[in-house]
Amino acid sequence: MIVLRLARIAAAxxxxxxxxxxxxxxxxxxxxxxxxxxxYGVVVKMPCVGCPxxxxxxxxxxxxxxxxxSDGNSLLLNISLPYDSAHITINNxxxxxGRQNLPLIYANQVLSDLSTSSLTEIIASGQLEATNQxxxxxxxxxxxxxRQTLQDVTTSQGASGLEVKVFHFDVFGLYSDLTTPxxxxxxxxxxxxxxxxxxxxxxxxxxxxxAPTYEILSAKLIPRPHARPATQRTMHFLxxx
Length: 241
Ligand SMILES: *[C@@H]1O[C@H](CO)[C@@H](O)[C@H](O)[C@H]1NC(C)=O
Fold this sequence. Notes:
With about 240 residues, this protein is mainly beta. It has one domain (about 30-240). It has 2 helices and 14 strands; from the N terminus they run αββββββββαββββββ. The strands form 2 sheets. Strands 1, 2, 5, 6, 7, 8, 9, 10, 11, 12, 13 and 14 form a 12-stranded antiparallel β-sheet that branches. The chain has a two-stranded antiparallel ribbon with strand order 3-4. The termini are far apart. 2-acetamido-2-deoxy-beta-D-glucopyranose binds next to strand 5. Keywords: Signal.
């Protein structure tokens, strides 16, 4: 029964995913949410409101200086869940892995009108990994200041014993030393959205399962909430240690 219900939830989530990418294809602009692996991997193109776009005029050679210009741009976030444990990775940095400190997270920047086919190429080449510079986009790479929360959601699923959790990832600042002096930007515009991910606990297959594991039920960008839950944790990029 549970398996059937999960299959239905997965199918519904997939339809949402397909609907979005289909729309993206028509406009040829990559969607904000791309499901890379149903339940386990999502690439998010998060519009970075008012953020400076960093670029290098490569006609001046490989080592041309990085400069800033204003141009609609987005940050790329690769969110994935391993099959066998409860942590989340964002651009290869593990969250909730049992470590005390929040990790440094870097993100690449792309123009917001990045095409679906360019995004597909980026995903296929694994270029999102860690601090790699994207060769196809020309945008810079930034260290992120962020806030995160993970909270339980009460749902009718409760009866089956499966938990749903909501994860919020709020990027509120950027730092890059590609430019001289370094570029800093507070992402404090009212229109700036945050990422919300719903996680569904997977049924334990046997009593020997060490701990519950989760899958991604949905991912979307939502307005920044006003409330600051007690569980919120904050990472200021420049004061990391
Ligand atoms: C996304 O992250 C996962 C887990 O770290 C990794 O296996 C995958 O290659 C990454 N994808 C891209 C496009 O970088």
